[in-house]
Specification:
Largest sheet: none
Radius of gyration: 20 Å
Number of domains: 1
Number of strands: 0
Distance between the termini: 53 Å
Structural class: mainly alpha
Strand content: under 5%
Number of helices: 9
Shape: globular
Helix content: over 70%
Order of helices and strands: HHHHHHHHH
Length: about 270
Amino acid sequence: MTAAPQPLRTGGYYHLLRAVIYRDLLIWIRYPVNAGLVLFMNLLFFVMLFYGGTLLAGEAIGDSIEGLIVGYFLWTLSTGAYSGITNDVRSEASWGTLERHYITPFGFGPVVLTKAVAIVFRTFLTSSAVLVVMLLLTGTRLELHLLTVVPVAMLAITSALGLGLAMGGLSVLYKRIDSVVNLLGFAFVGLISAPAFDLWWTAALPLVQGSALLQLTMTEGVRLWEFDPVAFAVLVATAVGYLGLGYAVFGLTTKRARTLGVLGDY
């Protein structure tokens, strides 16, 4: 008697995450000129901001250099996560591979969220490299308590990731919305600067509460367990809320694109 055929087995979510992260890093490394230029332009922009500000404002810029570095670090993180997921969704749609996520054993949603995690992981690596260079260039010292900085930074950019998912879904449905995507990316500068205006209602906006808490931990050495519980709860709520909203918009727009038969059109 012949043995009964064994059912086809697939890897678990760990294997999915490992494969997606490896793929994302591989694609990034395979285009070294583009990857290097992104890092170079981020550093060049900071150098222009720092030395230009020093010439114009003198000691004033030196007194606020720690806040400038922290804000710029968060800006590179948030824009990297936001534009990364938006561009990835648009690229997959133009390559004709976005539809394949629907037929994977894991389902469309888990694959997209895993890709988002991979993009955040890569963005954190590149932004950390930029942060190290900024500290060396300016001779500045910051409190880099990883058990506090990493969770706060991750929660802060989760809201930006949610906006990226929403823009990615809209780009699949409406195709060319580059002006809206870029305009929202520029708005991150104002959101990261919002805590300086001390307006309580801005805490409900993306990145605002994360920027405030990241400034506290990196410039004043406040630890995770020392944060005001209400302030930290607001950070978690905005992260979860904007990610959930962005994912809902992404799901609705891609479903609409499938209904219209334009999911793979470009």
